[in-house]
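Sample entry follows:

_____
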Amino acid sequence: PKSTASESFRGIRTNILYSAADVAPQVLLVSSSGPAEGKTTVACNLAVTMAQAGSKVLLIDCDMRRPRVHKLFNKDRDKGMSSILVGSCSLPEALVSSGIANLDLIPAGPEPPNPAEIIGSRKMKQLMEGLRKKYTRIIIDSPPITAVTDSVVLAQVTDGVILVVKAGETPRQIVHNGLMQLQTANAHIFGAVLNCVDAGKGSYYYYQYSYYYYGDE
């Protein structure tokens, strides 16, 4: 709880909640331009941090091609988002308790042959409308933007997108391409999370945060 990483996620949570002057965003899409940038880790930790602040939070794994949310919480994915959308199970049957107060999960479910089509269906829109009435915050983990169209489709049913960028590795052009795809779809972009920053001695980040904590210990 007192680590720099935990404090960083609390800072991200605060920045998101105060990103709009009138109403805080309710449904957030977490994605990245390319694979292996840490978007799932960011989505999960952001959901946990919001739940710890007292919000009723739902974390949805919509990366049906390479789902990982269920693994991080050590849950099954036999039933999940794909099951709901194809009609093989109901919402209550797919909901999973995370083991953390105020946080529920919907795993990805079995991999369907047509993820982008079922994500863009009318049933998906109706499902999200219903979930908005049940949860204060909804965090959606999605596939990389430049790999498949799923994230751009999902952006249409969310209040905005958080883009995860791996520091020192993700090529600038790839990030630019991802942003252009989101902007073409008129998606609202809250900002970026710079992940895997070198926080060692000698780095700017280290000097910013090395004396951050001033508690009893």
Q: What stands out?
A: The radius of gyration is 17 Å. The first strand starts at residue 27 and ends at 32. The longest helix spans residues 4-17.
